[in-house]
Design goal:
Length: about 400
């Protein structure tokens, strides 16, 4: 008998017919003698609608009421799925985050799980009842509802699997696994049998929304055995593995892009470490996250300082920069129409040619590379947003990742 957490995303529970299909998937594991805890997302489109309601009354994404509103979708799905299971003879009950509880910090809109008490779930199992948990939600120690950031049901599932010491956490979604690129953008992308925690973390952090980044971080920290698979098709998915077990032969495991960053350039800033430090300290104090940074080497006293921030943080970044007292520069350039393309693979450490192939391929498209950043397992470049999807397809071919048709 294994302990399994099964998580079903929005499209997998989009309507009553889908919920009935999902209940059969759960039944299969129960019939095989396993102990199952289920985590659900809101039905497809529901969270977006709730976000719309909150925004229409100027609900800030960092406020407690915003979380109360947008956490509601998961409550509906957990009740409905519990009913669907009961209807096919499987005793089940819904559980909301506060009923477990799943305790988080108070960062509304992107709260971090701090503690989960598995006792309520163990009690369900003792009574032969399947717990159906509303994902995405948490509770502060002061008793306020929180949410875990978009896509956060993945993190609920992995964190529960860790707390329950589960043998497996199965993430059911609308694709059959993790692909070498988003199959919606690259039709020739192929499914990976395995991917390391580290690579999956980078793919998610750089834009592949198939798993929320924090869920991968949690899986890595607690060595949770995670599989990504389809709730629509019965076929093997992708297993996330520690590096030593990696058997895939690709050097590059995936290509992704994200378009939620903007580029800022301060022209001709005084090239002095203290001045640059002041700029980043002020941005940090204003809670602006900086991603890529490039500073032109110059022989005279001035330098151009370029960096990227999240689009949603542009107003805060601009305000902060106007407040850096000692900085004098020849102007500030803002470009919100950029995208960061990233090539990920453990092989990058050993293969220098991988980065140059990326630059050569983008060069052949006539795409100017605005900022470049490298780490042992990834290379990222910032390009104009309008060419990003085409560039991902071209890079996918250039790295030999296209599936044979
Ligand atoms: P769910 O609602 O099940 O949580 P999501 O929409 O959050 O599903 O994530 C699944 C989607 O992730 C897929 O439909 C796919 O378009 C996208 N995706 C992005 N990158 C990848 C990738 N490398 N492999 C698979 N899917 C990806
Ligand atoms: N329903 C939430 C969202 O749409 C959480 C999730 O789907 O994981 O972001
Ligand atoms: Mg998701």
């Amino acid at each position: 008998m294994a302990r399994i957490v099964q998580k079903f995303g929005g499209t997998s529970v989009a309507d009553i017919a889908r919920l009935e299909k999902v209940s059969l998937k759960i039944k299969r594991e129960i019939d095989a003698g396993h102990q199952v805890a289920v985590v659900v997302s809101a039905m497809a489109g529901v969270t977006n609608r709730l976000v719309g309601y909150a925004r229409s009354l100027a609900g800030s994404a960092q406020s407690a009421e915003y979380d109360v509103i947008i956490a509601a979708g998961e409550q509906v799905t957990s009740g409905l799925l519990a009913l669907a299971l009961c209807q096919i003879g499987i005793p089940a009950r819904s559980l909301l985050a506060w009923q477990i509880p799943i305790v988080t910090d108070d960062a509304h809109g992107s709260a971090r799980i701090e503690q989960i008490d598995p006792q309520r779930l163990e009690e369900c199992w003792l009574k032969g009842v399947v717990p159906v948990i509303a994902g995405f939600q948490g509770l502060t120690p002061q008793g306020r509802l929180t949410t875990l950031g978009r896509g956060g049901s993945d993190t609920t599932a992995v964190a529960l699997a860790a707390a329950l010491n589960a043998d497996r956490c199965d993430i059911y979604t609308d694709v059959t696994g993790v692909y070498t690129a988003d199959p919606r953008i690259v039709p020739k992308a192929r499914k990976l049998k395995e991917i390391t925690y580290e690579e999956m973390f980078e793919l998610s952090a750089q834009g592949a929304k198939v798993l929320q980044t924090r869920s991968v971080e949690t899986a890595m920290r607690h060595q949770v055995c995670v599989r990504v698979l389809s709730s629509f098709h019965d076929e093997p998915g992708t297993q996330i593995v520690p590096e030593r077990m990696l058997s895939d032969t690709f050097h590059v495991s995936g290509i992704t892009y994200k378009g939620d960053e903007a580029r800022l350039t301060l022209k001709n800033v005084h090239n002095e470490a203290q001045v640059i430090a002041d700029i980043f300290e002020t941005l940090g104090d204003a809670d602006v996250q900086i991603d890529m940074v490039v500073q032109d080497v110059s022989l005279n006293e001035g330098t151009d300082l370029t960096f990227t921030v999240l689009k949603g943080e542009i107003p805060r970044a601009m305000d902060a920069l106007h407040n850096v007292k000692k900085v004098s520069c020849d102007g500030l350039i803002l470009d919100p129409n950029v995208a960061k393309i990233t090539v990920v693979g453990v092989g990058l450490q050993r293969r220098l040619g991988i980065a140059s192939l990326m630059f050569k391929t983008l060069g052949s498209m006539g795409v100017p590379l605005q900022v470049i950043s490298c780490s042992p397992i990834k290379v990222s470049v910032l390009v104009d947003e309008s060419v990003a999807e085409e560039a991902v397809r071209l890079l996918h071919s250039a790295y030999g990742l296209d599936k044979e048709c």
